[in-house]
Write a structure and sequence with these properties.
By secondary structure, this protein is mainly alpha-helical. The chain is built from one helix and no strands.
Length: about 30
């Protein structure tokens, strides 16, 4: 209950990883 920022930070990192992983895959597939 004391760490709402930590939860949002984890959610942000999770969403960023979910976006960067496919992006990196498509980039590596292109080149």
């Amino acid at each position: 209950m004391h760490w709402p920022k930590l939860c949002t930070l984890g959610c942000l990192i999770g969403s960023w990883r979910g976006l960067i992983v496919p992006l990196a895959k498509t980039l590596t597939l292109r080149s």
